[in-house]
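Hi all, posting the design record for the shared folder.

TITLE: backbone redesign
STEP: 1 of 1
STRUCTURE INPUT:
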């Protein structure tokens, strides 16, 4: 009888323990779902602000080269983009210290104004159209103004994007099972800016002219600055102590900030990721100027003068494919191995390169839409995955986002400078350079995957 009572008591205690564990599990799932919904709302507001900014700025990166060429400023567009990404690279070293000193919304707002100045420089250029090339309208003055504002934009871009990585990382850390969904959600909105931006560009360039294009985009950029200023704080009540600790931290000297970024190079995981981050930048630098080349090759003599408008039609599909890929890759990232997905994304770059070469041979305008779709998939997929990998493998480390943006911007600067130096060579030369970096990136990701698999077995 006593034995039966003891067994009953043990069963009751076991059931009670299981019941408590079940309740704790349900409570944890419920809390994570609440954090996910809160985080989703905040990321939605951040995404809309970024989408508005890059609706204004994004189309400029692809069209600016062609637009400035219409005024016989042959390399001005590519040089300004190079100035942006070159300064972006080295400003990334100190971005963490600046973000640490101010609130996210202040950093976002001030950084936004750098983009506004860069866009507004286009107003100055086209105000000088038809006037004597002297004073502030001289060639030297125009090159100086455009490149100065481009460099300012690069400095602001470093703080904007490192802050973006930190903001999203904080929100996604409260619901790790939905990390990929939240980051993919952001980049799908970013890609939507291409659709809106190029539809807007085609309307403005066709019916209102170049001056109106830069003027309205400057206004849109200021609107996004206000949207960023009213953003909510990313910290939830559950992790409010993180915010307090962050504010108490002292800003480290510049030398130490640079060391914090470079010390990551001793980490094998970070070291093998750098070629991948570099490739993402090369992709941006390549299609930002190459889409214009492919489209121009497909046009006849009468259509060439309207090349920027034809480019704007094509890049709408680049944005559409980016939106879809941003959503899809976010969902896949929460279910599958991130490195395998990244390897697949680098192989997608090869497909885009092959069809880009085909576009130069066939010279068919309809094929340019497929080429744009492929480059849009490459850009959105790889941009999303690089942030998800940095956020998952290096949680809470803003310096990893600095290293990521350093590699991105150097890769983009390299592609842009190659675009300038290889202008007298056949346009497919730049594609072979991209292909070379794609191979290196794929090999490094495969080695990193092998190392991780070995660690897991041990």
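Okay, here is what came back for every position:
SEQUENCE:
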């Amino acid at each position: 009888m006593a034995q039966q009572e003891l067994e009953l008591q043990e069963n009751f205690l076991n059931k009670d323990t299981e019941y408590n564990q079940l309740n704790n599990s349900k409570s944890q799932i419920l809390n994570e779902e609440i954090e996910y919904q809160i985080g989703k709302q905040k990321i939605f507001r951040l995404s809309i602000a970024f989408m508005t900014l890059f609706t204004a700025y994004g189309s400029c990166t692809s069209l600016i080269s062609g637009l400035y060429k219409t005024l016989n400023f042959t390399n001005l567009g590519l040089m300004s983009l190079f100035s942006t990404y070159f300064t972006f690279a080295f400003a990334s070293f100190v971005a963490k210290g600046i973000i640490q000193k101010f609130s996210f919304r202040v950093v976002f707002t001030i950084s936004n104004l750098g983009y506004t100045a860069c866009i507004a420089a286009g107003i100055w250029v086209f105000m000088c159209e038809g006037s004597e090339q002297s004073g502030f309208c001289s060639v030297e003055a125009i090159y100086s103004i455009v490149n100065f504002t481009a460099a300012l934009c690069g400095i602001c871009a470093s703080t904007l994007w490192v802050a973006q990585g930190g903001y999203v990382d904080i929100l996604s850390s409260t619901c790790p099972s939905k990390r990929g969904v939240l980051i993919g959600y952001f980049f799908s909105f970013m890609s939507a800016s291409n659709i809106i931006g190029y539809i807007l560009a085609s309307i403005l360039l066709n019916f209102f002219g170049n001056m109106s294009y830069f003027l309205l985009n400057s206004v849109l950029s200021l609107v996004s600055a206000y949207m960023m200023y009213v953003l909510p704080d990313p910290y939830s009540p559950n992790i409010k102590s993180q915010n307090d600790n962050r504010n108490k931290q002292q800003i480290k000297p510049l030398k130490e900030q640079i060391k914090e970024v470079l010390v990551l190079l001793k980490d094998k995981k970070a070291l093998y990721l750098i070629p991948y981050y570099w490739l993402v930048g090369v992709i941006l630098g390549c299609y930002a100027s190459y889409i214009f080349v492919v489209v121009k090759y497909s046009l006849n003599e009468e259509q060439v003068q309207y090349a920027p408008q034809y480019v704007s039609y094509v890049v709408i599909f680049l944005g559409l494919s980016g939106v879809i890929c941003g959503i899809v890759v976010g969902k896949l990232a929460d279910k599958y191995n991130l490195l395998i997905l990244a390897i697949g994304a680098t192989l997608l770059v090869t497909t885009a390169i092959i069809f880009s070469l085909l576009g130069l041979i066939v010279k068919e305008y309809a094929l340019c839409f497929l080429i744009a779709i492929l480059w849009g998939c490459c850009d959105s997929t790889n941009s999303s995955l690089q942030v998800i990998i940095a956020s998952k493998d290096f949680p809470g480390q803003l310096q990893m986002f600095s290293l990521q943006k350093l590699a991105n911007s150097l890769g983009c600067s390299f592609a842009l400078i190659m675009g300038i130096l290889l202008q007298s060579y056949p346009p497919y030369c730049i594609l072979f350079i991209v292909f070379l970096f794609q191979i290196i990136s794929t090999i490094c990701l495969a080695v990193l995957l092998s190392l991780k698999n070995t660690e897991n077995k041990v």
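COMMENT: The domain at 44-232+253-451 is CATH 1.20.1250.20 (Growth Hormone; Chain: A;).
Let me know if anyone wants the other runs.
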